[in-house]
Design goal:
The chain is mostly helical. The protein has one domain: Phosphate transport system protein phou homolog 2, domain 2 (Methane Monooxygenase Hydroxylase, Chain G, domain 1, Up-down Bundle). It is 84% helix and 0% strand. The chain has 6 helices and no strands. The chain is elongated, with a radius of gyration of 18 Å. The model has no long low-confidence stretch (mean pLDDT 92).
Length: 199
Amino acid sequence: MRKLLDMGMEQIRKLLVEMGNGALEALESARKSLDGEFDGTVETASKLHILRNEILDIATELLVRYSPMAGDLRFIQSAIDVSYDLYRISRYAMEIERTMRIVKPDCLPELSKEGFEVTVKAVKTAVEAFSNLDEMSAGRLLELDEKVDELYLKSLENLREPRECSALDALILRHLERISDHAKEIGARVVYIKEGKRL
């Protein structure tokens, strides 16, 4: 019984790693779209949707069959939440790429480029923190999230005296701010699994 539960949880772990890599891939594609390169985040987001459904199926079966407790239960609950976070990250990346395809700006959204640097770092940190259940890495996500929030607020302030690309920066940074929030939530799940504390 215990062995079957462990096998199921390991399967979920592997799928989450795959989802994490997919979310990063989508984010990198979205970043390239700022330079007019379009890799196709739609396919990646669709793939993550399928992987999330697989995780939901396995998690539901484990919950019903084995009635896991304590750390096992917290891991399975968190895996469901994290799969949602990673899927949403890919969807926001897709929206950024779609925006760039439609707008085809003549300017370069510099603030967004800066936002991407921090956001990619946040998502990488979140994926690694969850893979290794590393609370120290999870703690760094708060600082990264604050940086993205600051850039988003700056982009809104720039709308008072709009320059080229001000509106586009604000739109893209709104998506990046959401992505960063999801990364922060993944970090919070690590603390929940390890300590049973909800942040």
